[in-house]
Amino acid sequence: MTTPSITRIAPVAAASLVAAVVLINPLPAGAEPVTQDFTVPGALDFTVPEGVCSIDVVVEGAEGGRATDGAGATPLGGQGARVTSTIEVTPGELLVVVVGGAGGDAAGPVGDGPALGGASGFNGGGAGGEGRTDASNRSGGGGGGGASDIRRGGSGAGDRVVVAGGGGGAAAFTISGPETGGDGGAVGADGVGLSDADPGLGGTATAGGAGGAGSDDAFTAAAGSLGAGGAGLQGDGYNGGGGGGGGGLYGGGGGGAVTNGFGAAAGGGGGSSLVPAGGTAEDGVGTGDGSISITYDTEADTCGEPEPEPTPTPTPVPGPAAQPVVVEPTFTG
Question: Residues with Cβ < 8 Å from 124, sequence gap 6 or more?
């Protein structure tokens, strides 16, 4: 199989959809189906090859970032969703392929300053909340993982035709389980939290997840929205930060944190997915950065032969009416 040529235009950046633009030249026609894998976070342009009117896609959202709890363990962020589908396309049209980036892991304390939360995952992940004081065992929350998607007819959020949601970021000081960020899914899962602070809720098919409330309800983490997860809440005193929400069709809410007293923060909610008719979604399977696979076959005649125009049946044209023939009798003898 011939390797496609890839021209890098700009480096990847977590904050902008145009952080990376890669032009993909379609592979030459062949007898076997062709699969192209996109695994680098960023926005890519893909031109549909001639003779191709449908593509099979597998789209995975990115994983949420990690945090650190008070016992030295590392709570994990939620995992991304996987969407499998067939999409109808037009030969020569331009698709925008967007690969989500994993949420950043939270940092420990830096001198007497705050413990930084994890960075937002590319394509909609929410930032992790900060830990606030100089306690040596505090941590920020993990950043939310970005969604992966394919867009037709433009590069805006409204042009998305398939979306796989990203996982929510993990929370600091949480030791309740191996995973404190909500998974991305058809509907995003809620983050995990103890009684000290509320987790971010998962995104749904119609709305972003609500942000988690802090310990005294005076502060609330940011809610998810169309395409974006909410930021985790900042902890106060000796407390760590909440996890960021995962990106998605609608993003998950940011996790709450303890803002008065002492206790554990909560994880961010996972992002929701957009599944085309006939497609399937799997919850919580994507790890690390997101990915997109596109498979097509230029020899499979996915466009089909056009129906021939029916040949009209000629309408008979009547001739002149027959005239009676008069025969004169002949007499002999």
Answer: 100, 144, 146, 147, 166, 227, 228, 229, 246, 247, 248, 251, 271
Please provide the distance, in angstroms rounded to a whole number, between the alpha carbons at the two ends of the chain.
105
The C-alpha atoms of residue 125 and residue 231 are separated, in whole angstroms, by 8
Q: And the tokens for 182?
A: 């909500």
Cβ burial of 67 (10 Å; 0-12, 13-18, 19+) is buried
Residuewise pLDDT in 10s, the chain (333 residues):
444 433 333 333 333 343 344 444 454 544 589 999 999 999 999 999 999 999 999 999 999 999 876 556 688 999 999 999 999 999 999 999 999 999 999 886 666 667 889 999 999 999 999 887 655 556 789 999 999 999 999 999 999 999 999 999 999 765 555 558 999 999 999 999 877 889 999 999 999 999 999 887 779 999 999 999 999 998 876 678 899 999 999 999 999 998 877 778 899 999 999 999 999 999 999 999 999 999 999 887 778 765 566 666 667 666 666 566 555 656 565
Per-residue DSSP letter, 250: B
